[in-house]
Amino acid sequence: MAAPVASLALGLPDPGSAAPQRQSRRPGMLRSLEITIPGAILLVLLFFCFIWPLVYPVPSPTYGSVLNADLPMWSPGHIFGTTNVGYDNMARILYGGRTTFEVAVAVQAIGLIVGGLLGVVAGYAGGIVEATAMRVLDVLIAFPSLVLILVIADSLGQSELHVIWALSAFSIPATARVARAGTLRLRDQPFVVAARLSSVRTWRIISGHIVPNLIPQLLTFSMLGSGIVIVIESGLDFLGYGIPDPAPSWGGMIAYGQTVMSVSLSPLLVPSLFLFGTVVCLNLVGDGLRSRWGVR
Amino acid sequence: MAGSPGQRVRRLGTSMAALAAVKGEGEPGGQAALGGQAAGAPLLEVSGLRVRFRSRGGVVHAVQGISFAVEPGQTIAIIGESGSGKTVSAYAMMGLLPRTAQVTGSIRFRGVEVVGLDERQLQEHRGRNVAMVFQNPERSLNPTMKVGSQITEAIRRHLQLSRQQAHERAIELLRMVRIPAPERRFHEYAHQLSGGMRQRVVIAIALACEPALLIADEATTALDVTTQAQIMDLLLDLQQQLGTALVMISHDLALAATYAEEIMVMYAGRIVERASAGDLFGSVRMPYTRALLDAIPRAEMEPHVLLPVVGGRPPDMLTIPPGCSFAPRCPDAQQDCTQAVPPLQEHEAGHWWACWHPCQSGQGGQGGQKEAGR
Amino acid sequence: MIPVSSPAGAGAAPAPAGDVLLEVRNLVQEFVLRDYGGAKGGVLQAVSDVSFELRSGETLGIVGETGSGKSTLARSVIQSPPPTHGSVIFQGRNLVGLSRRAMKPARRNMQMVFQDPFTSLDPKWAISRIVEEPLIAYGLGSRRDRRERVNSLLDRVGIDPASYGRRHPRELSGGQAQRVAIARALVLEPKLILCDEPVSSLDVLVQAQVLNLFEKLRSELALSYLFIAHDLALVKQVSDRVAVMYLGKLCEIGPVRDIYRAPLHPYTLALLNSIPAPSPRAGKSRESSVISGELPSPLDPPSGCRFRTRCPRAQERCAAQVPELRPLGAGGHLVACHFPLSDGSAPPANSKARAEIAGIVRR
Predict the structure, then answer these.
(1) Which pTM was predicted?
(2) A25, A289, B277, C76 — which has fewest CB within 10 A?
(3) Does the ipTM exceed 0.90?
(4) Do A24 and B318 touch (CB under 8 A)?
(5) Which tens digits make up the pLDDT trace of A118-134?
C-alpha cells in the first residue's frame, strides 16, 4: 500500500483540503543545529580573517626573515609554522582566507545581480527577449566551466580582480537559469495574475511579487554555489593562474604543501583542512536553508 | 483464502469462483493467520482509540477516544470536516500512522489487535484484511509502472500465485471495476487514463486480495460529480458482490446519506453523533450535525437565500478546552456545555449522540423536508 | 477622498437586471500543444464558440465538469490570456486586442476571485498591503484614505483589520484567506466579479459562510457575478441565470428556476441526477440514473454534438450536425440540442424524460 505522506497523517494542511493553515510558532532559525553550528564556524572564520588582524598584531604574510624559515607547527610565535622563506603560515591562512571570502562573495553577488536580473527579465518578458538572452547564456554554459575560467584567467593575467571576472562567467549564467525558471513558475501564479488584473505596472510586479518570492531560492543557490566557487578559485591558485605569489591564497599554499609533502605534512594539511571545512560549512548552511525554506 | 465457507459461496460469477479455487490452492493457511472469528462478531471493533502527535507547537490530540464497530458487509460513513480526526482514524485502522503518533486504545480486526503490531505484521494486515482507496488517484498510482503491473504486484505480495495467474486475476479485476477493454488497459500507464478510470484501477488494486474491509478516504472528492456517482455505484455493487464492508470517509454528508447505511459524525477528534442515514436526517440531534445539514446548498432551494450558518472555526487540536468541543460555536450552547464533555450514548435505539442539549426530535433540519419538484 | 459605496439594504431580493454589462460573442480559446522539440502537437479548443450576455446586477452561474472549459472561459473574458477568436464586449467596449493601457479603465470594473486563496495572495505580503495594492496601482486617494478603505472593506468581509491586517496569508484559515481575496476584488468598486470556483477548496461550514458573504455583498453593492462552479446545487444559491458547459461548448443557458425544474439538455439532467441528495433513500433503491461512458479527449472531440457519445437520446443527426444554441419557448431559456427534453411550450416533461434517461442508462 502506498505510505501516506507524514504531514497528511499529522493533520497538517493537505493541499487537497482546506484545513486551516495553523502556523504554530516555528522556532526561529537559530534553533536548527544544522544551520547554527556551521554558521557559527563560518562567522568565527570570517571574524579571524577580517577583523582579528585589525586588532591584534598578526605578522605580515609576505614579510619574513629567512632565519625563521621552515619552522614546524606549534612553534612559539608561529602556530602554524612558516614557509620556506619565513612567512608566517597562520597569517597566510588568515589573509588567504580573506581573498577566498572576498572572491566568493563578489562572484556570487555579481551572479545574483547581473544573472538574477537577466533571468527574471527574460523569464517575465518571454518571447524574443527571453529566447535571445537564454541562447547567449547557453553559449557560456556550453563551455566546460573550468576550461572557460582558465582561459579567461590566463588571458587577463593574475590578479584577484581577474579571478573574480573569470568566475563570474560561470556564476552569471548559472544564476540566470535559476532565476528564469523561478520566474516562469511564479508568473502564472494566481497572485501575479491578480496583480496584472489590477493594472499593477510590470516593474512593480517584478520587484514586489516576483523577486521577493525568488529570494529564498536564489539565496540558497548562492550559498551552495559559493562552495563551488571557492574550490575553483583555489584550484586556479593551485595551478598558478589565480592570485600571484607571494600574496597568500589557500590554493597556493596547498600547491607549496604538495611539494614538501614528503618532508612535512602540515603545510599541506592545514590549508586543505581550512578549505575543506569552509566548503562543508557553506554547504551545510545552504542545505539547511533549502530544507527550511522548502526550496526545491 | 480468508473467510468462512459461507462467505465463499456468496461470491457470484463463475470466473470469480474459479479463481477463488485457484487461490485456495496457493495459500499457506490464511485463516489461521488472522485468528478465529466467532459467527456474528463484528469485523472491526474500535474501542477508546486515541491518537496524539508530537508537533512543534505541542501535542496534537487528533483523535480523542472513539469507539465503534463495523459488521461484515456493512457500509458506514465517517463524516467530518478538516481536522475532525476522520482521516487519522482511518490511518489508524490501516496501521499507517507514522512512528511519531502515539496510539492508545484498541482496534481489533476479527478479534486480533492491530494497535502495537510490528511493521511486518502490519504489512500482512494491510491489503489482506483491510485496503484503502485514497483521494488522489494520481498519488496512489506509480506513474512509471503499467497499471496492470501495479495490480499484479499487489496480488503477488499477498497471494502465492504464479505470474500467469496473477495476470489473469488482474484482468478479471479490471473487468470487475468496469474498465472497458481490460486486456489493453493492463499495459497502459496512469497518465493515459482519466481521473475516474485511475480511481477504478486504485479500487482494483485495493480489492486484489479481497480484503474484508475497504476504507475509502475521500475517494471521490477529487472527481467530477458524474464520475463520483459512477464510482460510488461501482463500490456498492462490488461490496454486494464480494461481501466487503465499506467505510467511507468524507466531508460530504449528502454523499453519505445516499450511499451509507450508518453515519458517524466526527468533530474535533470525537464522534458526536451516530445513526442510520434515515434517523440522522429525519431527526438530527447534535447541533453540529444540524449545522452541517443546513450548510449544504440544495438544488431544491430558492436562489438568493442565505444559508443558515454557524460562525467560528473548529478548535485548535493543540489545546483541549473543557467541555464540549462544539460549545463555543453552538447556537444552543448553555452553561453546562463548557464544563463537562458529553458522552456518546445510545439515547434512542440505533441513534447515538454526545450532547447535553440536543435538538428536539422532529426538527429534521432541511433534510427532513421532502424534495420539491424533482 | 475615495468614494465609498453606501450599503444598500441587505435584502434577499435581487435588484432588477439593468443594461447589458458583458456580452461575449463566439468566443474561442485554443491552446497549441507542443511536442518535444517545440513542434506543434495538436490544438486543444478549450472554449468553442461560446456566446452569452450578462446584465448589470445579474449573476450568471457557469457549471461544468473537468474539461468543460469554464475556467478557461473566465480567463478569456479577463483577457489573461486573450481569446483566440471572438469578442468580449464589456461596458460597450470590445476588450479583445486592446493594449494593456487601453484596458486599464475596464479592468477597474472587472475583478476576479480565484479558487485557491493561498496561491492568489502573495505569501510574502501582509493582508492590508494585499488589499491596498490595486488602489496604489490606480493612484486612488492618499495614504490615509487608502488605509481607511482597506480597513472598512476588511471589516465588511468579516476580517478584523486590527488583528489581521499585519498578518500573512499563511497565518489565516482557508475561509479567512478567501475573504481577503474577496476584499481585494472589491477594493476598486468593480461592477463585475468573476468567481472561479471560489468555495471549492473550503470546508462545508466555511463554504456556507463564504457563499453567504457573496450573496450579501451582491445585494449590498449591486454587483454582478460570473460565478463558476462544478456543483450545480451550489451555483443555484447565488445565480439568476445558469449556463451549463460540456467540452468547451454551451449546452444550455436559462433562468435558474427553469434550469433546475425543467432542464432541456440531457447533460443538464444527468448532472442534476448525479447530485447526491442529502436525504435518506429507503435502503439502497436510489435512482441509478448515472451517466455512462467516459469524457472524450478534448483534443479530438466527437463530431457534431460533443455530448452524443454519452447521451441516451443520440441519433444520427447528432453526429452529423453541431446543434445551435437556440431559444425554446419564451423566458430566455436556450439549449443546444437536436432532441431537447421538451419543446419548451408543453409543461415540463420532467418525470417522463427522467424515466427515459434513467431507464436507458440503468445498467
Answers:
(1) 0.81
(2) A25
(3) no
(4) yes
(5) 999 999 988 888 889 88
